[in-house]
Amino acid sequence: MSTHTSKAVLVTGCSTGIGRATAARLARAGYPVYATARRPDSIGDLAEAGCTILALDVCDEDSMRAAVREVESREGAVGVLINNAGYGSEGAVEEVPMDEVRRQFETNVFGLARMAQLVLPAMRAQRWGRILNLSSMGGRMTLPGGGFYHATKYAVEALSDALRFEVAGFGIAVVLIEPGVIRTKFGDTAIAKIGALSRPGSAYEKFHQRLAASIEDANTGSMAKLAGDPDDVAKVIERAVKSDSPKPRYLITAGAKVFVGMRSLLGARGFDAFLRTQFESPGR
Fold it and tell me: Among 93, 118, 134, 221, which is most buried by a count of CB atoms within 10 Å?
């Protein structure tokens, strides 16, 4: 019987940002890296960085199964799963269409959970593995306009906490990666989602305008100094993968530490009062 322990890395959502930076960094570190995206042609350049390119859509069962099966056929097991695929959909809770809510959960939560289910049998068999789930500072505190996005990240936090206990005895570590604002296309996607909701005369019209401006400011304006770059997150992910005993959570960027600390210190009412200085309050 083979005693080989696979440390092959499977990264979801590599077309931009954190996933792309993580795949490239771990490949440079010598790991067999399988970089994935819904459209493999969008990540072809990662092959030059030493990655193997696979198609993977975390909203499609057949696609997920095929990607995991491919890695296992070559390596024996997915040794490290980095559940990075996800996006932010912003807008007032009342006005976000339920189809968009379902898509958000399908991508950010259900796809992540299903990927973990698919890789765990082979991880357990080799009695070693790492599952790194991309959460957010938004899994620890909530900002106006991000109700459904934050709900997905709170769900990721809960799933990861339960899973960490359930699989630790098999030699598998489950880690939450909690970035603050990162300079990627994430903000552009969120702003586009707000724009799609904009309706003249809406009770939330001014709120949405201020929300979009706040997201823009966080990425490129006066607050951008608190933001990080994708490689800042990739460095932490590499450290967690290499660690014999990774921490359950890694909170990343100065901004994330400030906001999570404020939420803890001020409590719900105090934090709401602070947020009223930053956002348009609908109905007031």
Answer: 134
